[in-house]
Amino acid sequence: MSKPIPAINRYKADLRELNFLLFEQFRLGEILGRGPYEAWGEDEVRTSLAECYRFVREVVGPLNATGDVNGCRLEGGRVFTPPGFKDAWKQLYAGGWKLIGVSPEFGGAGSPHCVQVLVEEFITGSNTAFSMYGGLAHGAGEVIEIFGTPEQRETYVRRMYDGTWGGTMNLTEPQAGSDVGASTTTAKRNADGSYSIRGTKIFISGGDHDLADNIIHLVLARVEGSPAGTKGLTLFIVPKIRVNADGSLGKPNDVSVGAIEHKMGINGSSTCVLNYGENDGCIGWPVGGDEKINQGMPQMFRMMNGARIGVGVQAIGVASTAYLNALEYAKERKQGASITHWKDATAPRVAIIEHADVRRMLLDMKARVEGIRALAIKLAHHTDQVHVLENEDPEKAAYHQGQVDLLVPLVKAYGSDQGFRVCETAIQTYGGVGYTRDFPVEQYCRDSKIFSIYEGTNHIQAMDLVGRKLGQAGGANLQAYLGDIAKFVAKNKDHEVFGDEVKRVDAAQQALAASAMKLLTWFQSGQMELVPLNANRFLEMISELTVSQLLLEGAIIADEKVKSVSKEHPDYAFYEGKKHAALYFARTVLPGVELKAKLMLDEDRSALDIPDEAFATV
């Protein structure tokens, strides 16, 4: 009989690192107090982060391991979440944590997006499965806020933002995974203006649960007579329980749970098969009304973009706590003698943090976690600038929005790939015990694998980058990005500490620009098959260039700040850590950008030319 998993918190975060990013590197203080962030100052930000960190450690974090073990259960057609989730849900919303970035119009605190991202990191890092329910409700509510009719906004948005109702997104079907255009879910218009919905959706996160009074499903379906493919899809509001004109709940809406998926991780999140209209009694309404028929994909992309950023934030949260737990273990676990006494069998055992390879793994995790978090905050910073400047300087706002668009696939794909890698490295740091449930990193690793798959697999992100984002605005967004890197290089290439590493950034930037031209050549010359073959590689290149530049930017700030700090002050060690993480990444990861560029130029076709039969003889 296995021993029970205790309800204890194992989540860890470094508030000093978060405040450094906000106030020292990205200078959030420059926009605090300006529209639409008039109500926010530095004290409010710091206090909010500290209080949210306390909340997740006391309420959400202790449910992570127990939720993993207990999972969700389907009884009598209803899904029940793990013990403790319902009470945590109430406290989550009572504390206002899911409303912190919501507009005051809908009862929110209207925080900068940078702050919202870090609050989400706390929630998702402490309990990824639990965070799924609120994250999806928020995303679905945001779609209705932006695209819905006034009546739809009034009926649904506030209730979805404040946790009264949940929400989901429904794209995937048994025969239509990434190929969304192959959807067969149908919608037939009724005399009263509603639509009868019929079809099956799979892999629906939070598809049913007992946390909220109702669940508002956003469902892609094809209206009779609409074109084939994605151009003929419409997004429908389909409540689990019908909603009366006054906002009260009516009768069930013929939405049934076919099954709960049994997964590798995030077991506390109910991933459901949903059947719509099995008894011809499911009705829905187009988001935005009848004039938005066949506009489902642009609307859904709004939610998907937010979800993709959210996946990157999930990866950061889980990877960060995996690293910090591994660091704590490495400081405490004594194993083996120092390499300086390797021949002395009587030498005292030392903490494993003193062993060179463990130090390498710890620094590798530190650099990746801090670099990817900086990447996410960079995206959030651009978003905040859009909101501040959209009325006073539309041209600058457009520049910032262009950078947001360019960075979304990086945050999602590179963040999720590297988040899983960090969790894997954390297990390796622990050694054998890391593979057991006695420590949290094995769950972190299982939970984090889904990040590279859902909300569009990472190859889809790479194809979005090279097929759409590089050419947006006639290539101006990419040129602006490269221009920003060039300005950083020009300013810092002669830095007394980091000058050589900044020159590596310059070399990587030139390699990236040449690779972008190579992609364009393949498009124009009809060598289209080489584009998907190299898309993932290109996404890694631009991500590693961006992360290295951001780490070095932070290190240069730290190098200046450390000069006025005594060695006894905690900030001295903190700033030294920033410097060494940047040096490590620039010296050991960044040079790979030039190598990958060379590989692209080589145009290796091995994966294309191998016959299907040659993969194996079985």
Automatic annotation (TrEMBL):
All copies of domain Acyl-CoA dehydrogenase/oxidase N-terminal, residue ranges: 82-163
All residue ranges annotated as the Acetyl-CoA dehydrogenase-like C-terminal domain in the record: 482-611
UniProt keywords, alphabetically: FAD, Flavoprotein, Oxidoreductase
Domain Acyl-CoA oxidase/dehydrogenase middle as annotated: residue spans: 169-274
Database matches in InterPro entries: Acyl-CoA_dh-like_C_dom, Acyl-CoA_Oxase/DH_mid-dom, Acyl-CoA_Oxase/DH_mid-dom_sf, AcylCo_DH-like_C, AcylCo_DH/oxidase_C, AcylCoA_DH/ox_N, AcylCoA_DH/ox_N_sf, AcylCoA_DH/oxidase_NM_dom_sf
Pfam families: Acyl-CoA_dh_1, Acyl-CoA_dh_C, Acyl-CoA_dh_M, Acyl-CoA_dh_N
Superkingdom of origin organism: Bacteria
Ranges for domain Acyl-CoA dehydrogenase/oxidase C-terminal: 294-465
The protein's required cofactors: FAD
Family, similarity comment: Belongs to the acyl-CoA dehydrogenase family.
Protein name, per record: Acyl-CoA dehydrogenase
